[in-house]
Amino acid sequence: MAERIEFTNWLETHDQPFVVIDADFRIVAVNRAYEVAYHVRGEEVVGTPCYATSHHHDRPCFEHGEECPHRRIFEGRRQESCLHTHFDGEGRARWVRVTGHRLTTREGAVYLGEGLCEIASQEPAAVEKAGPRMVGRSPAFLAMVERLQRAAATASPVLIQGETGTGKELAASFIHAHSSRRDRPFICLDCTTLTESLFESEVFGHERGAFTGSVAARTGLFELADGGTLFLDEIGEMPLAMQAKLLRVLETHEFRRVGGDTVRRADVRVVCATNRSLWSCVRQGTFREDLYYRIACFTIHAPPLRERLEDIPLLAAELLRTLPPPAGGRRIRVTPEAIALLQQHTFPGNVRELRNLLQVAAATCGCDRIDAEAIEEVVSRFEAWRAPLDPHPAEAAPAAPPPAAGAAEPPSMAEVERRYIAELLERYHGHRRRVAQALGISERTLYRRLKAYGLR
Fold first, then answer.
1. In CATH, what number is assigned to the domain containing residue 311?
2. For the whole model, what pTM was predicted?
């Protein structure tokens, strides 16, 4: 009790939320700033496990593969910093940077002191919408969110780089929604859809009679985004001639409509995205070096889904939230067994592939629950669609000569497979998930084969 009073008095010298945790993961004390920021009262959380109260886990964070300052501090570190998802008293997720400190009382007892610096809320009012929102709690995802928040606090142009389907438009929307321009327009332009002849008309606008069919003046996207953000998706696909025109308007903020003489100005922040290595394009001569330096002031990496598989439960729930529920039914959910199967998939199409997979599974399952069997069927279908068709199959190998008289019969394919699975079970000490990964099949398929071959 004396130690708790000592901590309480000391904690109130901190302006930021601060919490003290003991070696058994129990919250010992929190300051007033923590209570206000996270909508809780101290007596509600003191004595509860930090991983349950703060992170909604059933066991310590490091056992879920997340970074955890607790273990490192009690191993002897003086200070440790990491990114975390922290839930408040209303159940809303906050993305925070946690800085852990080693605290020692006069009696020599050791505690963890955590200072919390919020990066952003998972669902700020500015970005609530019917479509999918950014969700996640993996280290790779949280590192991206921290970079996005830093970018939002600046006026610099931003370049988001990542594979197709990683959510680069959502990331750009996040920057806009957390910037000082949040109340102004957010305009998107897919650079792959514009021909060189349409670029100026679409981006800068045109006057009436500028060309055949222009019966009225049109405001361009650059002008529409005045005061806000213009998102240029897949800028690496933009032809060189268009790049020169874009560079000029980015440098001067001045432009003319097609067919017009008036010089117009627009205050626009530009955020670009690409699934290419733009610097490689610069070296190949397909992207202007001066434009690269103009748009890549602040670069952000959007991680592929294979680097954040632990986010699949949250992503699946968020993606399914946007689908209409079955007629007269509840919202569709994914069973834990189905989630486990999804986490074994490599997802070359990233979050977009996950969304499409869930849409197909939801349409075919016929109920409000997607189970492992539905996921296995859809994944197999996707892999079949992705497999290349070989119009020139290799010639069949010549038949093996018949076995000599008295020679032992060769084992059947089933027996070869049974022996191989048995060998893998021994090698991985019965760990079925690792065996399934080594075989390149799902755990559900492995279970069926174990049963068929009488293996345990």
1. 1.10.8.60
2. 0.75
Question: Residue 442's pLDDT is what?
Answer: 67
* Average confidence (pLDDT) per 10 residues, the chain, 456 residues: 60 87 93 91 92 89 83 88 87 88 88 89 52 86 94 94 94 94 94 82 84 79 94 92 91 88 92 94 94 94 94 92 69 90 90 90 81 87 60 46 55 72 77 72 73 80
Which one-letter DSSP state was computed for residue 26?
Answer: B
Q: Tokens 């004390």 sit at which residue?
A: 29
Domain co-membership, 269 together with 359 = no
The type of residue at 367 is: C
174-197 exposure pattern, b = at least 16 Cβ within 10 A, e = fewer: bbbbbbebbebebbbbebeebeee
Report the number of distinct structural domains present in the chain: 4
Instruction: Answer for the pair 274, 161: CB distance below 8 angstroms, yes or no.
Output: yes
The boundaries of the domain holding residue 32 are: 2-120
Task: Tokens for 48, please give them.
Answer: 């509860």
On the CB side of 321, CA atoms within 13 Å amount to 15
- Which two three-digit tokens encode residue 233? 């998706």
Q: Which residues contact 78 (CB under 8 A, 6 or more apart)?
A: 101, 102
Amino acid at 396: A
Beta carbons of 110 and 104 less than 8 angstroms apart:
yes
Residue-by-residue DSSP string for 47-70: TSBHHHHTT--SS-GGGGT---HH
- Asked if residue 205 lies in contact with residue 263, where contact means CB atoms within 8 angstroms, the answer is no
